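Worked example (supplementary).
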Amino acid sequence: MAPPDTASTSARPAATDNIVEIRDVHYAVGNRAIFSGLNLSIPRGRITAVMGPSGTGKTTLLRLITGQIRPDRGQILFDGQDVSNLKRGELYELRMRMGMLFQNGALLTDLDVFENVAFPLREHTKLPDSLIRHIVLTKLQAVGLRGAAELTPPELSGGMARRVALARAMATDPELLIYDEPFAGLDPISMGMIVRLVRQMNNALGITSIVVSHDVEELAILADTSYLIAGGKVVAAGNFAELKKNDSEIVNQFMNGLADGPVAFHYSPAPDYFTQLLADEA
Amino acid sequence: MSIFRELADNFREFLIAVGSVTLFLLRMLAQVPRALLRPRLIVEQIYNTGALSLVIIMICGLFIGAVFGLQGYEVLQRFGAEESLGVGAALGLLKELGPVVTALLFAGRAGTALASEIGLMRATDQLSAMEMMAVDPILRVAVPRFLGGLIALPLLAMIFIAIALYGVQLVAVQQLGVDAAAFWSQMRAAVEVDDVTDGLIKGCVYGVACSLIAVYEGYTAIPTAEGVGRATTRTVVISAVMVLILNYMLTVVMLR
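After joint prediction of all chains, the assembly is encoded as:
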């Protein structure tokens, strides 16, 4: 006899061990194509790095995954659900299962550190104050900032703000944590702290992490799988050793930080140098 | 030909702007019932826009009243009618000066604060962060500020009028020697409830206009330092023009 829920499981695509699947996504802003046939999957419970030169649409990818923008074509599946077809309410429900760490932390400036971490709890739950206090202190302890609970966002350094934002993103115990350029503009010590925290959160809580960055060295320590995006497509994927060995020109340029290559040193639509110089003199 | 094209383009842009402000207002109105369930957020904004504007409103009210007293006395005493000063001041302040000047001051003090605050929240990803925490920024940020502003403005206008009348009295009665009993009794005889309601209605309408413009400009600001600056400037300019145009239209309707 067939199990009673066969119908419902066949109607909905089965959840795979990839929490996010991006299938043939096309996205353009005006006439400029950002993605043309992007395919990528994020394995559950792992740390996946998304790398690429500036302006390749790494942040756009995050906005697509979180449903802030919709693709022109293609599918973005979060746990089997197509993010781009969801209504606002359904999208909000889905976002309860995600946490996102913005580049500068994006802490609410009219609230102190404690209230920032408590914010999602107060908005979405009716927990008593004592329990909220307990949760917030636990999260702040995890990022080492229990002592900063009463500070306001302008009093925090860049690294501290990002750690508070991480505590806030963790407050509702999400399944997926998305980090947008978590290392940008940090000193080596703060950077080390963030690397350690991302790893800890991932290992201790079994969270899936997506780290968007171009800091090759940090990602080498951190990421289980990496994708390199350029020209609107994935140009290389695999673990770091595989990426290092990849002999494609663009991968080689990015991984080794070469000034010239497929991403040209000279901004392209320029007239011929000598012709322009001579024309100016004449 | 090109001047016509430019005019047509400007007109089209104007229509687009009116359309998007209207849509924004409708999005906010749809969330008002839910926002009313959390009165603490609205009260906070009444404090931010209202209580924090109180000092400037009171100082300006006092001095506008004082000038009204000086000029009014100067004209009225030529006809021996200086005792009617109270009537003129009360009607002029209640029906015109009070709501209009309060709205202009409100746009300069509270409107700019609202626009730059929301614009900076946009520029520093705070609004996107709320979206990501499944919190609707229209409900959490825009609506409480809009409601706070529209409640605060009529209240401020009434306080402004009261202080300004005190200013008129200070100059006319205390300094220039107009008879106090005649000043107050003529005022009480001439001012009717309708005059007060007219002033309140104007205050409410300007409250909606100024708060809507400030919140909209902040919410749709380009997320850069320059964009936020421009949104703040536009808030003051558009609010001032709108208040004066609306004032003319309301006065035409109210005088019928």
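Two points are worth noting when inspecting this output. The mean pLDDT of chain B is 93. The interface with chain A takes residues 120-121, 124-126, 128-136, 140 of chain B (CB under 8 Å).
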